[in-house]
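Handout, section B. The chain below has 121 residues.
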Amino acid sequence: ARVKINKIGSGQMLRFEPHLVPTSKEMQVRYQIVPANKQPLDDQPAMDIVVEKSMKVFHLRTLLASANDLVPEDCRLRRVNKSGAGGNSLHQEQNTLSSCHINHGDLLFLEKRKLPKKGTT
């Protein structure tokens, strides 16, 4: 099943639907959860999600992290390069997915970051 994001009032909801086809304003992206600075685990499959092309990177990161019981602030989205390794981190979180050149069918890593302990640099 794939996931579609529905807006309900001021919030958003994930809805699982088999054979979901994106509209012209939407696209399907794949994501995989990975440990910080590592390759994905073999038993961790990529998941498909249908999102609006105009969605901001920040909102996608927050949505994916929350849906997977992760703290959004402890995660980052990384583009997967052609060799299948984690590429550039999507730092410009106020940009839309389409302005970051995320395209239909692209794979993203939702990476759990290792944050420094409080009081250290």
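Note. DSSP finds one helix and seven strands in the chain. Compare this with the example in section A.
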